[in-house]
Amino acid sequence: MSSAVVVEAPGRHRLAPHTPREPGPGEALVAVHAVGICGSDREVYQGNRPEGYVRYPLPPGHEWSGTVRQVGAGVPGTLVGRKVVGEGFRNCQVCDRCHAGETTLCAAGYEETGFTEPGAMAPTLTLPARLLHVLPDDADLSAAALLEPAACVAAAALKARARPGERVAVVGTGTLGMFAVQFLKAVSPAELLVVGTRRDREELSRRFGATDFRTRDEQLPDALDVVIEPAGSASAARTAAGLPRRGGRLVLTGIPAPGADGLDPTDLVVRQLEVHTVFGAPPDAWAHTVRVFAAGLLDPLPLVTHELPLADFSRAIDLVGAQDPKVGKVLLRP
């Protein structure tokens, strides 16, 4: 019998028998191809995710790809057999924010696949079909498993409104940072600076389109049009805020631990910076991500360093937390 990973409580998990859940009206059953692990999955396992943002016991897994196997009443039968990815946020669809397309701000409260609802660390996942985004038939599903973090960065790229010929920068060289480089490269900037803490990310940054790479202790410019910060370290936002020109655009997506350096409000006002923040990805960001991926402008595969079976969940969690430069994105395969 096939098995799913179930986190019973902080620090406790087991492999449990998995029975696919029949899709009800408006739902689809997806055969999971691959599921990514990120820092928030590690938080679920360790128990340090904020209260209200996890519900035990459950299979984790919010970054995934798969193929639709079955649909419920009211769902187009043409979805069956299609390769898909899916939004994580479960929204009410009827509040003002949902009607505005801002589903990550749903007034009904927080619900998300893999955190408060069963996730994809299982052979199948049943979810509302309206959350699915269809991929091209020739899509690489291992690469597509990374489209959830990419969609969060796409939300930042859309808010940044970078235009061809502008001078742009990314602060952060993790998975999200490398996606930010690719989204900004796609709009043909005049310059694309990447700022990181480790020199070993320079080669990959340049491969994805960076024209310059500097570590944070080096001399940094201060007249850029657009800066995206997906680092999440205590000082990253302040570093990023120093880079835009007067009237420039700054988008913060990293979530640092409490006690991080704040931004100087006087500096923001005097320089008239346009500041945006991102938490999660609304539908337009998902659609943008799938479109850019299908066009060949987004290449997630170089970020994947490990693919393991579901039974190696413990090892995967350890790898993600090891702070080893050789560990990039870790995928589990049901």
How would you characterize this protein structure?
The structure is a single chain. The strands form three sheets. Strands 3, 4, 5, 6, 7, 14 and 15 form a seven-stranded mixed beta sheet that branches. A six-stranded parallel beta sheet has the order 10-9-8-11-12-13. Strands 1-2 form a two-stranded antiparallel ribbon. The protein folds into two domains: 3-146 and 300-333, Quinone Oxidoreductase, Chain A, domain 1 (Alpha-Beta Complex), CATH 3.90.180.10; 152-277, Rossmann fold. With 334 residues, the chain is an alpha/beta fold. The radius of gyration is 20 Å and the shape is globular. The protein has helices at residues 39-46, 96-99, 141-144, 147-160, 175-185, 202-207, 236-241, 265-270, 283-294, 313-320; strands at residues 3-9, 12-17, 27-37, 63-71, 83-86, 124-128, 132-134, 167-171, 191-196, 212-215, 224-229, 244-252, 274-277, 304-309, 329-333. It is built from ten helices and 15 strands.
Descriptors for this entry?
334 residues, alpha/beta, Rossmann fold, 2 domains, 6-stranded parallel β-sheet, 10 helices, 15 strands, 27% strand, globular
Mind telling me the CATH superfamily name of the largest domain? Medium-chain alcohol dehydrogenases, catalytic domain
By CATH, the architecture of the largest domain is named: Alpha-Beta Complex
Query: Over all CA atoms, what is the radius of gyration?
Result: 20 Å
CATH topology of the largest domain: Quinone Oxidoreductase, Chain A, domain 1
Number of domains: 2
Our measurement of the CA-to-CA distance between the termini, rounded to an integer number of angstroms, reads: 12 Å
